[in-house]
Amino acid sequence: MEKFEVLQSTAVPLPIENIDTDQIIPARFLKATSREGFGENLFRDWRFDNAGQPKADFVMNTGRYSGRILVAGKNFGCGSSREHAAWAIYDAGFKVVISSFFADIFKGNALNNGLLPLQVSDEVLARLLTQIEEDPQTTLVVNLVNQELEVPVWEEKIPFAIDAYKKECLINGYDDIDFLVNQKEAIEQYESNRPWAY
Amino acid sequence: MAKTLLDKIWDAHVVKSIPGGLDVFYIDRHLIHEVTSPQAFDEIEARGLPLFRKEQIVATADHNVPTKNQHLPIEEPLSRFQVDKLTENCAKHNIELYGLGHEKQGIVHVMGPELGITQPGMTIVCGDSHTSTHGAFGAIAFGIGTSQVAQVMASQCLLLSKPKSMRITVDGNVKPGVTAKDIILYVISKLGTGGATGFFVEYAGSAFRNLSMEGRMTVCNMSIEMGARGGMIAPDQTTFDYLNGREFAPKGERWEQAVAYWATLFTEEGATFDKELTFDAADIAPMITFGTNPGMGMAIDAVIPTDVPVSEQASYSKSLQYMGFQPGESLLGKEIQYVFIGSCTNSRIEDLRQVAKYVQGKRKAPHVEAIIVPGSKHVEKQAIEEGIDKVLAEAGFELREPGCSACLAMNEDKIPAGAYCVSTSNRNFEGRQGPGSRTLLASPLVAAITAVEGKIVDITQYLN
């Protein structure tokens, strides 16, 4: 997993609520057996028409916005458990998704892939979306080490929460599998001491 | 301190707690399928890790499989490749596979319970969000991502923080025509699509207690549609009767011991939940969805709500525009083109029986295509033995072979752009059943009546 400490970037606004994983990556594109290449089908049916041509009015196609931060409406990533959603966003070049609320499984999947789900209040989210839409050149600084989202143009640093263990993993590029495999002895001991086993 | 059902099962599976509030959490059963497992196999192989407890893994092919001519090779090359990859990985790692053509093949959340693989008190995971289904047996069951699939393969554990608890109580008797699907669609319409995010839900009260195991599975299946990681119902005599004699259920003395243990799995008097909600069963009507998330549901004879908070209006309008509906409109009389009866929510034998009972001696409307996809080979076999296949054929319904099918349209079973489909599945997201498809979620009974009438009707007028 790639390490994450600080990211400075412009952002892409997507002010839609309840963006589900079928919009992020439709099921028909889940047939690949590797983790790469899902980015080209990110937001497929919003981004391209039936003939595969880019839809001019979609935020990623207007030419107005760019950057490695996606700012989206609340309850982002609801729906299926497909990790392909996190892979697609990451593969398309994003390293951070900002929203006021994330679905559980998506959040976990993102963190397991070096993609930071950054939760802000509804009020901050609304201000951010307006700010970016008015000035697409607005730069944001995501400082994971200090757990702060800096908006230089506002002269504001907005603190954000993250699980301490997950923060450590992101900063160091570790994942849970390393940790769990090292617990083998404790796991075997648990198995042999269970009062009821299936 | 009095414990909840969740507390009891959770605590019994904590290998150890680590500072910061995370638990090394033990998994009893790991179900895998072709779509979310290949990258996990690659990952453990790349790290040179063996499978820690391969005998606790069961695999099936369901998401991608065709529902016609399953005896022939899969035509679509990418689907075939993915299904072949699963076969190859299972052979290499010596994992039990109920692949295409196997007599036990089926949708993972139909296959597990009907074979008795799913049991009370267990922890069960699968790379599929509808793993919550298995909670119907009083198990902690939830969907995981592919990285976690690899973690379970490598260690039989996950690193988790305990979710918050919510109890949803529905007491009373439901009205005629109201099924398990209507109860859960009603609850989701009250909570919204993110209303239970961060929570594990326990369903309590007589409305759930009175349901069969099939009905309880339908309820728990859709827990994720309000954001909950899982849903559960305390095991009782209905649960034990369902499991008794099933292939992988404990036998003989083990059965007696198991039932004695399972009977201790309930929320104790005085136990507290982080959130409690109560509904009256009598308020629930046959439901239908009108929008593009499962929270956008209403009584079938109601009008599409107009009172939407200002902050949600843009998304709400976008959703209704996609569906071709207006706020304040009634859906009664709307012509529909497709009816899909299937998915891990409603493809069990009880669902098929209910449909057959209604359509017997009737005929679907000429302009409607009605597809019925059994949840497993076992359900298909049972339907044939009971003569349900003939009833359906006479009514013009097409009985297919098992798989996830048009629930997520990974295979050929797609609803065309712009067409309306009344579906017994779990998600009405934009394009879920094929690009441009418009899904209206409902119960198998509503679906059957809609297919016959060719339009949305107040089904209470059609019951005997």
UniProtKB/TrEMBL annotation, chain A:
Catalytic activity: (2R,3S)-3-isopropylmalate = (2S)-2-isopropylmalate
Gene Ontology biological process terms from the UniProt entry: L-leucine biosynthetic process
CDD domains referenced in this protein's UniProt entry, alphabetically: IPMI_Swivel
The protein's Enzyme Commission number: 4.2.1.33
Keywords, in A-Z order: Amino-acid biosynthesis, Branched-chain amino acid biosynthesis, Leucine biosynthesis, Lyase
Gene Ontology, cellular component aspect: 3-isopropylmalate dehydratase complex
GO molecular function, one term: 3-isopropylmalate dehydratase activity
Annotated TM spans: none
Pathway stated in the Swiss-Prot or TrEMBL entry: Amino-acid biosynthesis; L-leucine biosynthesis; L-leucine from 3-methyl-2-oxobutanoate: step 2/4
Gene3D superfamilies attached to this UniProt entry: Aconitase, domain 4
Pfam families per UniProt: Aconitase_C (PF00694)
Xref: InterPro entries: 3-IsopropMal_deHydase_ssu, Aconitase/3IPM_dehydase_swvl, AconitaseA/IPMdHydase_ssu_swvl, IPMI_Swivel, LeuD
Residues of the Aconitase A/isopropylmalate dehydratase small subunit swivel domain: 1-122
Family assignment from sequence similarity: Belongs to the LeuD family. LeuD type 1 subfamily.
Functional note: Catalyzes the isomerization between 2-isopropylmalate and 3-isopropylmalate, via the formation of 2-isopropylmaleate.
Subunit structure: Heterodimer of LeuC and LeuD.
Protein name (Swiss-Prot/TrEMBL): 3-isopropylmalate dehydratase small subunit
Automatic annotation (TrEMBL), chain B:
Entry keyword Transmembrane: no
Aconitase/3-isopropylmalate dehydratase large subunit alpha/beta/alpha domain location: 7-454
Matching Gene3D superfamilies: Aconitase, domain 3
Enzyme Commission identifier(s): 4.2.1.33
Gene Ontology MF term list: 3-isopropylmalate dehydratase activity; 4 iron, 4 sulfur cluster binding; metal ion binding
Highest taxon listed in the record's lineage: Bacteria
Textual note on the cofactor: Binds 1 [4Fe-4S] cluster per subunit.
Residues at which [4Fe-4S] cluster binds: C344, C404, C407
A Pfam family hit: Aconitase
Family of this protein: Belongs to the aconitase/IPM isomerase family. LeuC type 1 subfamily.
Subunit: Heterodimer of LeuC and LeuD.
UniProt function note: Catalyzes the isomerization between 2-isopropylmalate and 3-isopropylmalate, via the formation of 2-isopropylmaleate.
Protein name: 3-isopropylmalate dehydratase large subunit
